[in-house]
Amino acid sequence: MCIVLRMSIGQTFLGLLEATPRHGYDIKRRYDEHFGHARPVAYGQVYATLSRLLRGGLVEVEAVEPGEGPDRKRYAITEAGVTDVAQWLARPEQPEPYLQSVLYTKVVLALLTGRQAAELLDVQRAEHLRLMRDLTRRKRDGDLAEQLICDHALFHLEADLRWLELTTARLDELAAQVRR
Amino acid sequence: MSAPLLVAEGLYRRFGETVALVDAALRIDEGEVVAVLGSSGSGKSTLLHCLAGIVRPDRGRIVFDGQDLVTMSDARRSALRRDAFGFVFQFGQLVPELTCLENVALPLRLARVPRRAAEQRAGQWLERLEVTEVAGKRPGEVSGGQGQRVAVARALVTRPRVIFADEPTGALDSLNGERVMRLLTEAARDTGAAVVLVTHEARVAAYSDREVVVRDGRTRNLEVAA
């Protein structure tokens, strides 16, 4: 499960660099430890992101150390980088409105075409519950970070299930409305 | 396939004008955790009460380990509930005058186990449920989460074949609810007990092996499409 969106990898790297300058390898290691979980960040993405931050003046190369292979660069955050990460942390994330529901569309189409909408909702419910069971098992065997990540997903799935239940309870009403 | 531990078929039950169950069915195998999901008034608690021999259905068949619960005498049903079933309810339902240790030991005392042996086993279950610190306290002196863990210990102390849990986390916050569910399902799996878990919360149901939904008194098994 990737928990850091592509768009915020840059700020995450800046946050990791704020405590201390690091080599690219060290940034990857720390990132994977805290946020990578089932999907570690690729080396290519690490260096592409650092290049972007470098071009933007948000990080700088503090030292270049010769090694057996290519030279190792140590990256440090700049003042502009500290400001950028501080602004990102302080800015609330936009709550997802979830207004474009594929499920709602399927339910309405099922009703319009005379299919079993309740059946469709039950199949979806079973799929949600299966995933919730998997996450609950994963949570049971995981450390605190894993537990919190799984909880986040579980609460969202539970919200979906409440909607499925409510919609099931209102199917007759919805059917009368869409067939009008 | 081996015979199910508990099987119910064609259950019908009404209370006055209200029909609570219509052709409800459920089967549970040894050691299985089955969640019964449904909204308020769906009939899920009535189903649990029928399965546990608390309420007799108007029609239908309930067989536990080869014994027919519907035609069984009241005395035999009471004995079965005491010896083979364990119960956890939403609000613990502990005896307020007894200490938590005495509450857990109570089912054993009713089964004529000597006090000392009963309290020793009760103490072990309190430890298992991570709640030894409340052994000498009365239910009114402990938190909701602690009280519910005491209730789970009491349900397990006789090593029942089936545990009936009716909204066991309904009065708890998320963190305490999770702890109760983790301890309840782990202990049940270790002892081989089956669990019938009635809940309206999907996160609680996720601790089960499979789910059955009750809607307007009818049961429906949820199966994931292949």
Automatic annotation (TrEMBL), chain A:
Give the record's keywords alphabetically. Answer: DNA-binding
Gene3D superfamilies per UniProt:
Winged helix-like DNA-binding domain superfamily/Winged helix DNA-binding domain
The Transcription regulator PadR N-terminal domain extends over 14-84
**InterPro entries for the chain:** Tscrpt_reg_PadR_N (IPR005149), WH-like_DNA-bd_sf (IPR036388), WH_DNA-bd_sf (IPR036390)
User: Which Gene Ontology molecular-function terms are recorded?
Assistant: DNA binding
Name of one Pfam family that matches: PadR
According to UniProt, the name of this protein is DNA-binding transcriptional regulator, PadR family
The organism of origin for this protein: Micromonospora matsumotoense
UniProtKB/TrEMBL annotation, chain B:
PROSITE patterns, alphabetically?
Answer: ABC_TRANSPORTER_2
Could you give one GO CC term from the UniProt record? plasma membrane
InterPro entries under this entry? Answer: AAA+_ATPase, ABC_transporter-like_ATP-bd, ABC_transpr_LolD-like, MacB-like_ATP-bd, P-loop_NTPase
Q: Which residues form the signal peptide?
A: none
Keyword field contains Transit peptide = no
Molecular function terms in GO for this entry? ATP binding; ATP hydrolysis activity; transmembrane transporter activity
Keywords (alphabetical) are: ATP-binding, Nucleotide-binding, Transport
Task: Tell me the ranges covered by the ABC transporter domain, including all copies.
Answer: 6-226
Entry-linked CDD domains? ABC_MJ0796_LolCDE_FtsE
Tell me which SMART domains the record gives: AAA (SM00382)
Q: What is this protein called?
A: Putative ABC transport system ATP-binding protein
Please give the organism.
Micromonospora matsumotoense
